[in-house]
Amino acid sequence: MIGIEQLRSIALFDGLSNDQLRELLAVGEERRFRPGEELFHEAQPADHWWVLLDGTVDLLRHVGHEDTKLGVMNAPGQWAGGFQAWDPHGVYMATGRGAAPGRVLRVPAEQLRDRANAWFPFGVHLIRGLVHTVRNIESMARQREALVALGTLAAGFAHEINNPTSAATRAVDALESTCEDLLSALGKLAGQSISAEQFVALDLLRREIEPAAASADPLVIADREDALSDWLAEHGVDRDWIIAPPLAAAGLDIAWCERAAALLGGDALGPGLEWIASSLSTATLLSEVKESTRRISDLVAAVKSYSQLDRASMQYTDVTEGIDSTLVMLAHRLNGGVSVVREYGADVPRIEAIAGELNQVWTNLIDNAIDAMNGTGTLRVSTRVADNGVVVEIGDTGQGMTQDVQARAFEPFFTTKGVGIGTGLGLDISRRIIVERHGGEIGIESRPAETVLRVRLPLRAPTKR
Q1: At the N or C end, where does the chain have fewer CB atoms within 10 A?
Q2: Under a CB-based contact definition with an 8 Å cutoff, are residues 51 and 82 in contact?
Q3: Torsion angle, alpha carbons of 307, 153, 287, 231, to 10
Q4: What is the pLDDT of residues 241-289, one digit of tens each?
Q5: b/e for 300-328, b at 16 or more Cβ within 10 A?
């Protein structure tokens, strides 16, 4: 059993009296460990203070499919954990695993806090102030990261919605003029005293037109428009530059115009063809408005799905739907040289999760992948079922990560981006959401020209600790 004499030989305890050492031993416990035995685990509450007495403990962090060694405790007096003595939210920063047989003194964090308050209160105030300051700085940085992400998404959404909105506005403006032409042509046609039978026959002729059958080749349409303009001019029809384009776009030819001339004849031909041309233009513009507003509605639906504003926090969530809505929100960044390959498993089940937080993870990972490719490459997004859960992979064809970068990628404030571009919190936030909030795993596999971020999520969310 450990005694006061052994503690007195450890520099960490210099300055403590024998009574204080006895008090520390009374609230703590000696624990022996073997090689491979795990003492504490990363991201778990740091509710104990671990002081090495002898032996060796490796400090590890899980990266990808393997544990990366961050450091080693091999000298008596080295310690880890106990952060909840100063911070109720403190967690272990790494996993402690025995490398050589040894012993540790384990003290509950609340007992460490009580002893420290009694022995050196001024030092405790300094430590708590330091922890509070660091937490405030981290909180402000996280808020900035969130605001930057929100600004990026808002800019992307504005970019995406601008095109259909502008198209709808142009179509509505054109509709006003087209409707006036339609009514004017109808008035001129009525002024020619055509019979009801003629008007009905003209309307039947109009209904035969199938715009969908029109050629999409602009050169063919242009040639047809020139031919129709010449025919209209030869038959004394005014405003041929107004009438010919919609007729040509609808796939009509001179033979069709000859049928209309045979039906109307005389001065009624011009107003009759203008009425049909205006009705075709109106139908085309209405179709543009319908398509534009449908696109706007789809974008709004994607934003709604992305933000999850109408849903409870914890819910059964379609991971694929969340990824797709995220891709819509980031579509402005994918334009150009980035191609997207979707590999979604057909049997991927819904999982219990906080959908809005998962979408934040997908945003961080996809945004980083796009940055890694510098605007050119292939973004691969896949989902599949594995190990009673769901696996999501987001890969890019960028330059890849070095081993050093992989080992530090999930550390708070670590970034490889330029000053003012990244805060180094994207992957840290993602790790917290996946590991701490959902009980999953997140890791990196990287090689030259390929980096894959792999997320594993359980089907059911863990009970809150």
Answers
A1: N
A2: no
A3: -170
A4: 888 988 888 888 899 899 988 888 778 888 899 999 999 989 888 888 8
A5: eebbebbebeeeeeeeebbbbebbbbbbb
